[in-house]
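User: I'll paste a sequence; please echo it back and then give the predicted structure.

Assistant: Echoing your sequence first, then the prediction.
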Amino acid sequence: MNSIPEMESSNSENISFNSIGPTANAAMSASYSSSPSSSTTPSRYENQKRRDWNTFGQYLKNHRPPLSLSRCSGAHVLEFLRYLDQFGKTKVHTPICPFYGHPNPPAPCPCPLRQAWGSLDALIGRLRAAYEENGGKPEANPFGAGAVRLYLREVRDLQSKARGVSYEKKKRKRPPQQQIQALPLPLPSPPGAA
């Protein structure tokens, strides 16, 4: 049975996610250090995924009472996302704000700064992948819980209305189809002409 590494030890590594402070965790870091191709430099995505994973591990370690990854649920993931909101840089207007629904407000307002929906969505995607890469079973993945998907949808809708920004899926641009030029077909010869 695959077990998920517990988060009990720490080291002095300081890695931050959007300036939230130290995010060290030896058990989680160690599980990431053994990548299949250790001779190549990890991609930006892989580095960010590792930092996010370590940040979440640090969050669980600092949780009161401390929480092991194996006991983590979708509710804890939601708590983590709400915690991250305090470090957000995206202005989200409240319904009573005169700039509610305006993408480019003409003046400052006291509305709160939040994590942007796109950032949270990408973060959950990376953490979902990291969870499974570190031995978690897909069916038990707290980052894929229905409550987390619902929360992200609600954040997207709220921010879309508040900021006057559409979050519709972008349509893929299809490669231009080559026009097949119709070749002139020979006209059929009249009957009896040969």
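The chain has a mean pLDDT of 78. The beta strands are 90-91, 113-114.
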